[in-house]
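My hope is that you will study the protein record below before we discuss the fold together.
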Amino acid sequence: MLKTYHAKVYYMAQKLIQTQEQKLAQIQRLSQQQMLQVKLLEMPLTELEESIQIELDDNPALETTNEDVYGVSDNNEHEDDNAFNRRRKKQKERERRGF
């Protein structure tokens, strides 16, 4: 929070008149991490999945599991992977072409 004080003194007809102003300003700035979080929240689901897959491919320290967040196994994972891989190939092709 930024506070500024201004004091002004006026001399008028042998009298001393003093005024004082106070201004209050609040500035909010987002960190790079907060900006990335907002970007991820705004992404459509398919784009988010593709972005995650690209990160997994680029970073060998990351890995996936066959369970979701709640520990429930996904029976349709193989079908989902095939569809995801097709979408990812299309995305890479679009990026290669410059779209």
User: Anything to note?
Assistant: The two ends are 44 Å apart (CA to CA).
